[in-house]
Amino acid sequence: MRQPESSHYTVTHLISGRMDAYSLAVVTALLWLRRRRRKNKTRIWMHHLNTRRPDFGSFSHLFPDLVNHPEKFYNFFRMTNENFKKLVELVGPSIRKINTNYRRAIGTEKRMAIFLRHVVTGESLTSLGYQFRIGKATVHKIVKETSKAIWETLQPQYLPVPDEHQWEEIARTFFEQWNIPNCIGSIDGKHCRLKCPAKAGSLFYNYKGYHSIVLLPIVDANCCFTLIDVGQYGRNSDSSVFTESNMGRSFLCGSLGIPPSREIPNTVTKTPFFLVGDEAFPLKPNIMRPYPRKDLDYPKKVYNYRISRARITVERAFGILAKKFGVLQTSMETSVEVSEAVVKSICVLHNFIQHENSFNYFPSDDVHDATHSHSSNSSLTATRSNRATAEAMAVRDSLKEYFISPGGALEWQDRAIHRNV
Questions:
Q1: Is 23 a residue whose pLDDT tops 60?
Q2: Which of 302, 324, 375, 407 would you call most buried, defined as having the most Cβ atoms within 10 angstroms of its Cβ?
């Protein structure tokens, strides 16, 4: 058999004759060279558009100017320059990359800026890649690594599991600001939209008509997150998400260090420390929900108003979060794992910003007008399980009596009830 004369010599030519060891080796070498040429044609180290990143990239030109204009800086990153510097100082060591002999690494400030622009605007990874002159795969990697680093770095300081003293402080603040005794938080669920994951079926499809994962937080009196659970299927109800989550199981079995029952101010009646939620949650001794909205008498109307008024903190927290981080107003295009990491990171970022600004930094465009949320006529889906115990109903009745007593009544609650009827 004669030797191959060109690269067009293929397996087909050899099959027609007798194949020996030499011919097989030649074919193997030719196929390897062809694959190598194809691979080299499709893969490049850096696209020529991105090689001019230092000259024309968005970060190189815009960031130095934003530093000199605080209002514009806040509008761009949804945090002050001081907050940004401290965030980079805290998280920077976890996301810093080193330069090599082949190329310079993307700096920590630029990595943080890319991540913040993604969560602030909800802009696609492709669009951010063009703006910052970085490949889409690199942008995705930056978002993934930075979101995980933010959670791991900030969570121990800005979203720790409270101890007994901290639970008592939360209850004291709730009583001072929202006039409800022994309350240690408000709870509700928020659906975070995402593109349908592959082969997920209807697991993530919620009753609102889109695919989502559920963010279920406990919120304190200052609209900060105390505990969060992220990632359960959008098809699940708030009640089932709570009871099936590690957070919910720990709360219900009493393993979170919550103090024992305490007397309601100006009374001798003791109640457990409790959460307030809407009708989607079960009535428990440590979870208070409104009375059913049928044939309500005056004391029950007052109770429903006072409970819903305290629950406004979780509604306001959701409003601030969604307004500040536009990624919650779009469908997240990353995987479920990365989407969970992004949601967790923006929750701890929310706490970080609130703490750093002493809980009173509410720019006018961030505040969610939730005054309608405490109306007893809001549309909610009641839970169909977890029948209330006699102890839970007794706690609710004790609070009901307290809210209409001289020591617990508010001077404006009658006007609020008539306004919400």
A1: yes
A2: 302
